[in-house]
Design goal:
The protein is α/β, with parallel strands linked by helices. It has 14 helices and twelve strands. The strands form three sheets. A five-stranded parallel sheet has the order 2-3-4-1-5. A five-stranded mixed sheet has the order 8-9-10-11-12, with helices on one face. A two-stranded antiparallel sheet has the order 6-7. α4 links the parallel β3 and β4.
């Protein structure tokens, strides 16, 4: 345990408080049990270390551990908790919980046996808390879903440029004024291009020129380690999921032909749909459905990469994929996206959006009420034509 404490103190010493993610102030840290879900690389570890560094005068009251550490190969989480609590610990922070077998059972026992102990657990975006154990954690835990950085956050993180968060209604009603005001002293488009390529994952700063290779290795790790840790799948499925990513890279935005996809993956229809669903839940892909149906056994109408960085990493020559992936990643945090009959996205069953470059027109969505064009390569829009970058201020 002393080794774990030493690692914790070293990580804490290297944690900066200069920039905090959007979700930091949304979390009610007073809850007894908090679960923070998110994709690999979006900054969950930094988030909880920042909270410890800022909230505790006495660091001995808190302990951060990653449950994939080798210490847990012959020690249990309950054993750690017992020793930590006996020495006056009050707050336990558990990282990578999905890599610890039966973590939900042990966390539930800790919650019940140590009511004065506060627990924060972080793990894969695929974590499921409902029904996993008798008296499941969903009734006990306050859950938060953490996304990658928005364009607004990237500007603050990279350039110390602080833009206010905007609602979708504010953007739709006042986008010309907002974009003119915000771009008065800054060339926004070069920053936006940088964000599309590497701004979603905070680790880009430590990756330098190797960011794309590191992001590709992160996707490999999610497929090889994280998904099997949460879903009971065979190694053959892991190989097929890697093939699925490559298929998507060559053809996204992708309208699935399930018969063809099954042949390409050498898989049944149900398994092909299951793989798409797992890739979606793991924040690698994003499925779009019509408003008539959702679910793991329903064929999606379109499949995108989860965010623009993944689109660049796997299909960088397809700027349409990059733009649509960006729009979906920013809107999906607080809004429902579906596939419309015409246009690229339906938002909240109310607005229709077509995504494109500065010359993109309304021909595909003409005469449709509540329709807009989100256009790349333009600083300031007009009428129902809105700069694409402006949707990066939503969170």
């Amino acid at each position: 345990m002393e080794h774990l404490i030493a690692l914790f103190n070293k990580k804490l010493a290297n944690t900066s408080l200069v920039f905090k993610r959007y979700i930091y102030d949304e979390i009610n840290w007073d809850n007894q049990l908090i679960v923070i879900k998110g994709a690999k690389g979006v900054g969950k570890t930094t988030l909880i270390l920042q909270h410890i560094k800022e909230a505790f005068d006495d660091y001995t009251k808190a302990l951060y551990v990653s449950l994939d550490h080798i210490w847990f190969s012959n020690h249990s989480l309950l054993e750690l908790t017992e020793r930590f609590y006996a020495y006056g610990g009050t707050h336990l922070f558990l990282d990578e919980v999905h890599k610890y077998e039966n973590w939900q059972t042990e966390v539930k026992n800790i919650y019940d046996f140590y009511p004065e102990l506060h627990i924060v657990a972080t793990g894969s975006s695929m974590l499921r808390l409902e029904g996993a154990v008798k008296g499941d954690l969903s009734r006990r835990a306050r859950q938060y879903d953490m996304q990658g950085m928005s364009f607004r956050e990237f500007l603050e993180f990279e350039k110390q440029i602080k833009f206010p968060k905007k609602t979708l209604d504010e953007i739709l009603k006042d986008h010309s004024y907002l974009s003119a005001q915000l771009t008065a002293g800054i060339k926004i488009l070069p920053h936006f291009r940088d964000y599309l390529q590497h701004g979603y994952y905070p680790f880009y700063k430590s990756s330098h020129d190797g960011f794309i290779e590191r992001l590709q290795s992160v996707v490999d790790s999610v497929i090889e380690v994280d998904i099997p840790a949460v879903s009971n799948i065979e190694y053959s499925t892991v190989r097929k999921m890697k093939r699925l990513v490559q298929l998507m890279a060559s053809s996204t935005p992708y309208t699935p032909n399930i018969t063809t996809l099954c042949k390409q993956l050498e898989s049944s229809r149900n398994n092909a749909l299951k793989m798409l669903d797992m890739a979606d839940k793991a924040d690698i892909m994003r499925q779009l459905f019509t408003s008539e149906g959702f679910g793991s056994m329903v064929k999606p109408s379109k499949v995108l990469f989860n965010n623009s960085n993944l689109a660049y990493a796997f299909s960088g020559t397809n700027i349409g994929t990059v733009r649509e992936s960006f729009f979906a990643s920013q809107l999906s945090v607080a809004h429902e996206l579906t596939m419309p009959d015409a246009g690229d996205f339906c938002v909240d069953n109310c607005y229709i959006f077509e995504i494109g470059g500065r010359k993109k027109g309304f021909s595909q969505i003409k005469d449709m009420p509540g329709s807009y064009v989100a256009a790349d390569d333009m600083e300031i829009g007009g009428g129902n034509k809105i700069p694409l970058w402006l949707f990066g201020l939503l969170y």
